[in-house]
Write a structure and sequence with these properties.
Elements (H helix, E strand, L loop, with lengths): L9 E5 L2 E8 L4 E6 L6 H10 L4 E2 L6 E5 L5 H5 L5 H6 L5 E11 L23 E6 L8 E7 L12 H15 L14 E8 L4 E6 L4 E4 L15 E9 L1
Antiparallel strand pairs: 1-2, 2-3, 3-10, 4-5, 5-6, 6-12, 7-10, 7-12, 8-9, 8-11
Length: 240
Amino acid sequence: MAELLQTPIEVFETQGRTARVYHHGREPIKVVVLDDYLADPEAIMDLAVAGPAFAPNGPFYPGIRAPVPPSSFQTLLGPLAEILPRCFDYSGRAGLRECNFSLVTTPSDQLQPIQRLPHFDSLEYGRVAALLYLCRGENQGGTAFYRQRSTGFESVDAGRFSAFEAALNADVAHHGLPDFGYINETSPLYEMIGRHQARFNRMIVYLSSSLHCAHIPDDFVFDLNPATGRLTVNAFLGMD
């Protein structure tokens, strides 16, 4: 799966890593990408393989999750210390809201309606999502960002939520529920504005209010084994 044509608006070094900053859409949506993020990604993978059992985690995520051990939080999130104030206007301490290992395991024909649409993660002001890919292979998809066609919204905060929800209900009433399958580039309700490919040891960081969805290709293999499946770490941070 090729990435959408896009050029970073800024490139800088942080803690021995190269950060690339992208703007998508009109608002715009900001996404920071750091490749070769962990010095020893296999050690974190070992924790996923040997750690707590994966299980479904609510109706929204199309797969299974397991908690990341607290002893690994600093390794996983410490490198973001310069990213958050520079790119997301953080001042003071960032507080961890949630941190899980995740595996996409729900076949396309078993998705709930909410799982076939882009979503936002939280209405909390300033909450940031940090997504680390720990999967290998060329068919692991990625993460895509979207615009709601009827409103033009590319993100949803508390002030927009009512209008977003009303528009979504009206759109579904007019167009019907989306067909079974993971959303891709074409949809009567949403327009893709940016996409980043899954790549082993790649971290992407964006505001949780951004409309986004896992981009899952047609030839994706739904693998429940964290050693070989589409393993990611999903963390959420807020301004404390």
